[in-house]
Design a protein that fits this description.
This protein has helices at about 5-20, 20-60, 75-80, 85-95, 100-115, 120-135, 135-150, 155-160, 175-200, 205-215, 220-230, 230-250, 250-255, 270-280, 285-315, and strands spanning about 65, 70. It is an all-alpha fold and about 325 residues long. A two-stranded antiparallel ribbon has the order 1-2. It starts with a helix and ends with a helix. The relative contact order is 0.12. The mean pLDDT is about 80.
Length: about 325
């Protein structure tokens, strides 16, 4: 065999080894499709539960009347919503509850920074503050209804402490009811924030903190200049998530604590949807309000996804 022929044989053999066979390509393609096959049932379930439901709600929002006798009215339901004082007040209450977000964030971050310092019993403290978050919202609402009602437990404690000037009808006064509901939300979400921020602080490299201390940084400087900047992305996530929760997941608190009262002073958009859809039978108005609520929540969800994508790019 000549040198040229042997060289050709070697190159031909190498090309044959490097070139994948048809069976190999099919196997690789199937493996690439496997994840989508596993995701398929979940995607179908999401499509049925959420996409189909949203399409139906958007469809009903264009009609008026009961389910059995619907009349097409176009976008009239949406126009009626924004001239309805109850809906406008309910939407305003949702925005008022957004003020709980910075309060929860500040308190949670402050306690997480404190208990991040290694001292005895830190795990027990984390577990204790997390307990309110895992309690059922209904049970918690019933408990606080006894605590905050007129001449309830809180007023009794204030009276015994000779602080009668602080006694109020916390749930029966239009001036105080949203403040009381906001306080319950802060108490319930506080533990979740502490756990989230504590986990983020544990991921901060210890060498960074030690280097700052060697350079003479005190405890406050370490927290403000080192730790908080290191977890600022987690803080952003938490703020957006809390805003979504306050905007669209407070129905249970309102229903159990006040039932929307006194009058309609504690009504929120979710409660407005419940009343019109299930109690009054105004399916069109309820559906239109649900679309508006979803649109407002979608803005926050879009911001959350944008922040998450930006963070992923920075990490990469």
């Amino acid at each position: 065999m000549t040198y040229a022929s042997s060289t050709s044989a070697i190159l031909s053999s190498a090309n044959t080894e490097e070139r994948p066979t048809l069976g190999t390509r099919r196997t690789r393609r199937r493996r690439q499709l496997w994840p989508y096959g596993y995701m398929g049932p979940a995607l179908v379930a999401l499509g049925v539960v959420f996409v189909y439901s949203f399409v139906e709600v958007a469809h009903y929002s264009l009609y008026a009347g009961s389910v059995g006798q619907l009349t097409y009215v176009g976008f009239s339901n949406y126009r009626e919503l924004f001239i309805d004082p109850q809906f406008v007040h309910a939407m305003f209450n949702n925005f008022r509850l957004l003020f709980t977000v910075p309060i929860v964030t500040f308190l949670s971050l402050a306690l997480a920074l404190v208990i991040n310092t290694t001292f005895r019993g830190v795990r027990a403290y984390r577990a204790i503050v997390f307990v309110p978050y895992i309690l059922p919202a209904t049970a918690m609402g019933l408990s606080f209804s006894y605590i905050l009602q007129g001449n309830g437990i809180l007023d009794g404690v204030l009276k015994n402490l000779h602080l009668s000037f602080l006694i109020h009808d916390w749930l029966g006064s239009p001036s105080w009811v949203m403040f009381s509901i906001g306080s319950v939300i802060v108490w319930q979400q506080f533990g979740f924030g502490v756990v989230v921020f504590s986990a983020a602080l544990l991921a901060v490299p210890g060498e960074t903190i030690e280097a700052a201390r060697i350079d003479g940084a005190n405890w406050w400087v370490v927290q403000r200049k080192i730790l908080i900047p290191q977890i600022h992305r987690i803080i952003e996530f938490f703020v957006i998530l809390q805003a979504i929760i306050v905007l669209s997941s407070v129905f249970t608190y309102i229903y159990v604590l006040t039932g929307g009262g006194p009058g309609y002073s504690s009504g929120v958009m979710e409660f407005f949807i419940y009343q019109n859809g299930f109690e009054n039978g105004s399916i069109g108005i309820a559906s239109a309000a649900a679309v508006v609520l979803l649109a407002l929540a979608s803005v926050l969800i879009a911001i959350y996804l944008w922040v998450r994508t930006r963070t992923a790019k920075e990490v990469a």
